[in-house]
Amino acid sequence: MAIAMASTANVATAAELSGPVSYIIPFGPGGESDISARFQQPFFKEKFGQDMVISYQPGGGGAVGWASLNGLKGDGQTIMGVNLPHIIIKPAQKDVGFTTEDLNTFYMFHYTPDAIVVTADSPYKTLADLVADAKANPGEVTMSGSGKASANHLAQIKFDKLAGTLTTYVPFKGTGAAVTALLGKQTKAEWGYTTVGAKQGDAVRMLAVAMEERHPLFPDVPTFKELGYDMTGGAYRGIALPNSADAATTKMWSDMIGEINNDPAFRQQMLDGGFAMLDVDADGMADFMKARIEEYLNDAREAGLIK
Amino acid sequence: MELDQFLAALTPLNLALALFGVLAGTIVGSIPGLTATMALAVLVPVTFAMEPASALILLGAIYTGAIYGGAYAAILLNTPGTPSAIATTFDGYPMAKRGDGDLAVALACFASVFGGMVGALALLFLAPPLSKVALAFGPIEYFWLSVFGLSLIAALSNGNLMKALAGGAFGMLLSTVGVAEVSADIRLTFGSQTLIGGFGVVVALIGLYCIPVLIDLVAVPGRHLKVEENVKAVRIGDAFGLAIRSKFNLVRSSVIGTLVGILPGAGGSVAGLVAYSEAKRTAKSHQKFGEGEPDGIMATESANSATVGGGFIPTLVLGIPGTPPDAIVLGALLVQGVRTGPAMFTQSGSIVYTFIYGLIIATILMLPAGLLIGRYAYKSIVTIPKAVLVPAVGFMTIIGTFSIRNSVSDVIIMLCLGVFGWVVARFGFAASPIVLGLILGPIAEQGFVQGWIIGDATNNLFGMFFGRPISQGILAFTLITLILPIYLARKKNKAHVELES
Residue A4's pLDDT is what? Predict the structure, then answer.
């Protein structure tokens, strides 16, 4: 009986876990990818009874990890975090050992909305103040951000275009370094995420967030849309399996991450951390990715970041 | 109120966790390739079931132990177990070679406990004001700091200045391979997937330091380390005496370590090197740095242990992790529901203070734990026959390298660098300048690019590079480091000539 069930399970309906799961983050610890994985960790153990072991495989801005993903076993015991726009922009720039289509992304579970952040004592009280300064002094408004051709950088390019301003983007190694530069007044503002506002509290002020509606944690911070700039989005994070994983395994994982994502306690923890939730499961992934690929490649091409 | 938190940290369970953490951390840190980051990442889920304070004490203890553990391999195998221990090899290995390995291990332990205490006390009493140091350092300050770090190559070169500079330049060249951190360009990979991740610092450490030692062990007859007759125990008494005599060195190095630890972009390797070169600069004439000088070990080990407490200052006060292990502790705090950032000391003060007291307790426990493990590490390394030692260490280097990021490419790079390092060592090129270039190259590049962009945007390039007070200070130190040895050498020569005539 048990054998019969197991054999049918292999064919189509269900897969199951056979021990602790390895969850690889293709960056170092401490970033948004790591923090959100750490939030998932206890919920996974509680719901599915298996340990989730997080490890880091940094290098090449994530490329080292993603290039190795499909060489790993597709038995469902190993998963890896994926990030947008990274997995779209990187392979479009140069051969980095993987393509966007290679990655078997089965769930996008949150995003960190773009936001312009200034220090609490900054002369920019509102977004209009910053835009006015940038128009009066083209190029002199310096804005730190994480990496080049990254979510922050694309946001800066897009906003400059929408607002008709010329600001100077200064790339740093990770959000932590970009925030340090802001707090130390090395730059006048930062292109960051809502998570920066959550972490830094009263030390910073967000001028606008790139969401459809205001973030529940920051009811006083307007959206770009409210202020007349058609800008929503940020850095999207999801999880992928090696592409040798069968449909049943992919479905199992999509359901499991979906279940965690719909736990009210998990959602609350994520929102308190400044994240914005997203629920794109395995079935909806193709459409979601298609739209994002088009959007990011267009923006990057117009900005001259890719050919 | 503060006493409450101290007592909270002192429960039997917490003490047991601290002791376990220190022991486990020391062992992990002593194996090249296994890092504190890895040990912490694996253990974080275990801590979810614990009280937040206990969890943090365990994590802090592992971290403290791992930084100290790096000294063993540095002293006994000439291989820094962690980048923090690079400068420990300079005098530690020569000491071990001449039969003083037991003394060196004990000295490292005393110095680490002292440095760890200075860093932890700074965290306890001075964290909010000291956190401003982290913010005062902008891109240009990091650029000049790394130039200063590179100038230490000259100070550390022991007469072979041109070869040391060539090594440093080669290290910087290696650091540009792969995806550039700030510009996202893919450079110098020649289409090879193996090179896209670049040359990792720990990978280079293992290759450049450990592989040549292994080759020499096989190529040269005789024992690995000289063994005194009747080795009984680690020479605690001698070590304590030396440590007392070098109290100024210990204090200075610990303060350097704490301050460098506060800078998120620098780290234990830079702290150890700066403290080492300061100790060397102020050395008395009979001291021979680089040939087994106890003060060299004490300078590095106190400085790198002080970075633990120092690094937690920006982590806890500003929510900006100084090092990867700090980042993991920060993540664990978040999951425990502690809001980090500026409000943490006021809102979650009790947990934070219990953590700091736990760190202090762990540092104190490192004294007995470190001496005990040190004794066994020393005994086993000197008594194991070569035929067992070489394969065992060789196995460890490969496993250690692979485990950094489960990458076969890293193992290939490690082995190639190892053979390369052995060959160039025949021609007088040392490993340390290459590794120094590899560590400092990216810091210099990022600082330069960012500083240039900001200076250019504000039409003030000159002021950006030369007009800021901290930059000017670092620049002055750099010039002193470069010019002083030449000046002294000339003066000495002149005196010599006058004496002869």
Answer: 43
